[in-house]
Design goal:
The protein is α/β, with parallel strands linked by helices and about 425 residues long. The chain is built from 16 helices and twelve strands. The chain has a six-stranded mixed sheet, with helices on both faces. Strands 2-1-3-4 form a four-stranded parallel sheet, covered by helices on one side. α7 links the parallel β8 and β9. The chain is globular and about 75 Å long.
Length: about 425
């Protein structure tokens, strides 16, 4: 008899989650923390593929996980155990739902890309409900900002994220669509998987990223970036808060089986900037050349002097142009770029603060901490500690964004 089948008095909750996906791993963490902090007295088992017979055997007190289809919903209803759905893939499913606020995700993406100085935008989606909502939020926010958005009407919108299936055909479709868009353009992809399609299409067509096309995804599945070979900027969803809310909902359903909890939508945390949107859309060629020179030599303490040598105008004139184009001085631009790079290293690596200071040209960790705190409101060590938790650092205004478990046993939630 397996541990999951042994009789016990502590109720067992099934977590149908995939820990290889960063969002679902964060949801799992939120569930466990909520149970521990409020002493709810549950045990948890991770089982992604339990059949209906196993669930009906009376071994489990509830289930939290993604429900993607009506057929799966019908199967789960026959088990008569409380279920909380953490997927927004299918609008027709009526099980209690705790999901990200996908309209707010679209709003955040629009604010972020517009804040890069871009004036042309596109959306790359999938034939799923969360994609429709993110598109609607993106388009409506852009309209309020005075912009329009080109949609991917000519691109196949697969419901199943099979990247290997006819990938060259898909890349060609996306590349043809991207070629027709005015440049530079900001592309919002409904999730990181779709953002990968956009970047692969750019590689296929020889389109420069991020100079011609900037790409923003959703999910911040940063561990996949190393496997894919792409540095994708991404909207980070509040997975831990979703997990906490899902367990609270399930707990109420167990205490009162007749309750019908309304859908809960959890706001996204922030945008994590990586190379795919590391662009500043300015028309002044001298300012653009200066920014590129700064980025290429950011680790050097004398980066400003080195950049000035490459620009055929005086420092005073270039500083004036920089203020006109970017709203900040050259020296402020250097610190802005350095903090953007530092944030990326804090999120994606385990490098010591001193090493990050060296790689970003600060050299002195005290100087890095001082500048980081002035821009972010918290020191770098605190930013790193909370980067995958429930804490959301202060978001700059538009236009100023820097760069108890046991396991027995895809796509965006």
């Amino acid at each position: 008899m397996s541990p999951a089948q042994r009789p016990h008095t502590t109720p067992v909750i099934v977590l149908g989650l995939d820990r290889s996906q960063s969002l679902q791993a964060a949801i799992l963490r939120g569930v466990v923390l909520e149970a521990r902090e409020h002493q709810l007295g549950y045990r948890f088992v991770i089982e992604r593929f339990l059949d209906r017979g196993s669930l009906r055997a009376g071994q489990f007190a509830g289930l939290i996980g993604p429900v993607y289809t009506k057929k799966r919903e019908q199967q789960l209803r026959l088990t008569r155990i409380p279920v909380v759905n953490i997927s927004n893939a299918c609008a027709a499913i009526t099980l209690p739902r705790v999901v990200s606020d996908d309209l707010a995700v679209g709003h955040m993406a629009a604010d972020y890309l517009a804040g890069k100085g871009l004036h042309h935008f596109g959306f790359l989606g999938m034939d799923l409900h969360f994609s429709d909502l993110r598109q609607r939020g993106f388009v409506t926010r852009l309209e309020r900002l005075g912009f329009s958005c080109r949609l991917d009407d000519q691109v196949e919108q697969s419901r199943v994220p099979d990247f290997a299936r006819s990938k060259e055909h898909l890349w060609r479709q996306v590349a043809q669509w991207l070629r027709k868009l005015p440049k530079p353009v900001g592309i919002f992809a409904c999730n990181d998987f779709r953002a990968r399609h956009a970047l692969a299409a750019c590689d296929f067509a020889g389109i420069k990223v991020p100079d011609e096309v900037s790409v923003l995804g959703v999910d911040n599945d940063h561990e996949q970036y190393e496997l894919w070979g792409y540095e994708i900027s991404s909207v980070e969803l509040a997975g831990e808060q979703i997990g906490r809310a899902a367990l609270r909902t399930l707990h109420r359903m167990r205490r009162n089986p007749k309750t019908r909890p309304p859908p809960q939508r959890i706001a996204p945390l922030r945008v994590v900037t990586r190379r795919s949107t590391d662009v500043i859309a300015v028309t002044d060629p001298h300012v653009m050349r200066a920014v590129r020179a700064i980025r290429e030599q950011l680790h050097k303490p004398d980066v400003l002097q080195l950049a000035l040598r490459q620009i055929p105008v005086s420092r005073r004139m270039l500083d004036r142009r920089c203020r006109a184009a970017l709203g900040r001085s050259l020296r402020a631009q250097v610190e802005w770029e350095r903090i953007g790079r530092a944030r990326q290293l804090l999120l994606d690596t385990q490098l010591a603060i001193k090493e990050i200071a060296d790689r970003t040209g600060f050299n002195d960790p005290r100087r890095l901490s001082l500048v980081f705190r002035s821009l972010e409101g918290i020191p770098p060590s605190v930013y790193r500690d909370h980067s995958r938790g429930s804490f959301a650092p202060r978001q700059p205004p538009v236009g100023t964004e820097p760069g108890g478990l046991r396991q027995s046993g895809r796509f965006g939630v």
